[in-house]
Write a structure and sequence with these properties.
By secondary structure, chain A is an alpha+beta fold. Helices cover 49% and strands 24% of the residues of chain A. In chain A, a hairpin with a 2-residue loop joins β2 (60-70) and β3. Chain A is elongated and about 105 Å long. Chain B has helices at residues 11-15, 21-30, 36-66, 71-77, 81-92, 98-119, 122-149; one strand at residues 9-10. In chain B, α4 packs across α6 and α4 packs across α7. Classes of the chains: A alpha+beta (189), B mainly alpha (150).
Chain lengths: 189, 150
C-alpha cells in the first residue's frame, strides 16, 4: 500500500517536473523572440517560415526566413549571422527579391518595410528596419544579372578593399582587370 | 532559333550583385568558391537558421493551438485536413474582404451553439458533413492552387 502510494507520488512529481520544464522552455523561447521582435510585429501572426516561393513569370525564386501577417499585409524578416550588427545593400536586394517572389506567387500584399535580423556569434540579436526596393527595380536587377552573365554589360567591381582582399576570385579578377587595362591602352595608342 | 532558357535566379544570387558584379561573373565561370573564414561563417549561418526555423515551428504550433475557432468543422471532422482547409479558406479569402469579416464575426457568435447542437448525434454530424462538403472542396482547391504557386 505504502509502496503504491510512493509510486504514484513519484509519478506525479515526474509528470509535474516534465510539464514545468516544457513550460520553462516555451517561456524562454518566447522571451528570446520578444527581445528582438519590433513593436509593430508583436501582435503579428507568423505565417511562413523557411518557405520557398517561385515567381515563374520573373524567373525568380526566394526562400523566406520568416513572414508575419499584420493588418492584412505580410512583413518579411531575414536572419543574418554577422560579427557586427550591420546591414548591407545585398540584404535589401535579397529581401526585396523575396517580396517580389512572394507577391507574385501568392498574390498577397507584402509591405515595403522589411526587417534584417543580425545575429552575432555570441547569439546577440538586433533587428534593423529597411525599406525594400520596388518590384520594377527587382525585375531590372534580374535583367542586369542576366546581361552580366551573357557578357552584354561590363561588370562593376566593389570599392571595398577588405572585401577584395578576402575574395576567393582575386587572382582571376586581377588578371581580367589587367587585360582590360592593356586593351584600353592599346586602343588609345 | 529558340531562346536559351535560364533557370530561376534565387534571391541570394541576386543579392550578390549588391556585393560585387565582377564576383557574380567569376562565380558563374569558375563555380562557387569559399575561403576558410567564409566557409565557417556559412556553417554558423546554417546552424543559426536551423535554430531560427525550429523556434518558428514551435511558435506556429502555439499559434495553431490558439487558433481553433473552426467550431463546427472541428466537431464534424476533428483536427483533420478538412478543418485545416477551411481555416485556409477563412484566412486567405474571407478575412480579405469586409463582407467576409462580417460573416466570420457572425459565425463566431452562432458557431459554438451550432457546434454543440451538431455534436449531440451522429445523424446531425452526417448532415453537417454534407452541408460543409462544397466549402471543403473549395478550400481544398484553394490549398492546391496556393501550393502550385509556391
Amino acid at each position: 500500500m505504502a509502496n503504491s502510494a510512493l509510486f504514484w507520488i513519484f509519478l506525479s512529481c515526474l509528470v509535474l517536473a516534465i510539464l514545468a520544464l516544457r513550460a520553462a522552455r516555451r517561456r524562454r523561447l518566447l522571451i528570446r523572440e520578444r527581445r528582438w521582435l519590433p513593436v509593430e510585429l508583436s501582435r503579428a501572426r507568423l505565417v511562413f517560415a523557411e518557405r520557398l516561393f517561385v515567381a515563374r513569370s520573373l524567373a525568380l525564386a526566394a526562400r523566406v526566413d520568416r513572414a508575419y501577417e499584420v493588418d492584412g499585409e505580410i512583413r518579411l524578416v531575414e536572419l543574418k549571422t554577422r560579427s557586427r550588427h550591420r546591414v548591407y545593400a545585398s540584404d535589401v536586394i535579397e529581401l526585396s527579391a523575396q517580396r517580389t517572389a512572394l507577391e507574385a506567387a501568392t498574390r498577397r500584399r507584402v509591405s515595403r518595410v522589411g526587417y534584417v535580423l543580425t545575429q552575432t556569434p555570441f547569439g546577440e540579436r538586433l533587428v534593423h528596419r529597411v525599406i525594400l526596393l520596388s518590384s520594377a527595380t527587382v525585375t531590372q536587377l534580374v535583367a542586369r544579372r542576366a546581361q552580366l552573365l551573357d557578357g552584354i554589360v561590363k561588370p562593376r567591381c566593389t570599392r571595398n578593399a577588405r572585401l577584395c582582399a578576402s575574395c576567393p576570385y582575386r587572382t582571376e579578377c586581377k588578371e581580367r582587370r589587367t587585360a582590360l587595362f592593356r586593351d584600353g591602352l592599346e586602343r588609345k595608342s | 532559333m529558340r531562346a536559351r532558357r535560364r533557370r530561376s535566379t534565387t534571391a541570394s544570387e541576386l543579392a550578390e550583385i549588391g556585393v560585387c558584379e565582377q564576383r557574380v561573373v567569376l562565380q558563374s565561370q569558375y563555380g562557387p568558391r569559399h575561403s576558410a573564414p567564409s566557409r565557417s561563417a556559412l556553417e554558423r549561418g546554417v546552424e543559426a537558421h536551423n535554430e531560427f526555423l525550429e523556434h518558428a515551428r514551435r511558435l506556429q504550433a502555439r499559434g495553431n493551438e490558439a487558433d481553433r475557432r473552426c467550431f463546427i468543422a472541428t466537431t464534424v471532422y476533428g483536427e483533420g485536413f478538412e478543418t485545416q482547409a477551411l481555416r485556409t479558406l477563412r484566412d486567405q479569402v474571407l478575412l480579405r474582404c469586409r463582407v467576409g469579416v462580417w460573416v466570420i464575426r457572425l459565425y463566431y457568435r452562432v458557431g459554438p451553439a451550432i457546434a454543440r447542437y451538431v455534436a449531440k448525434s451522429n445523424c446531425r454530424r452526417a448532415i453537417a458533413r454534407i452541408v460543409l462538403k462544397p466549402f471543403v472542396a473549395l478550400a481544398a482547391l484553394m490549398l492546391l492552387w496556393s501550393d502550385r504557386g509556391e
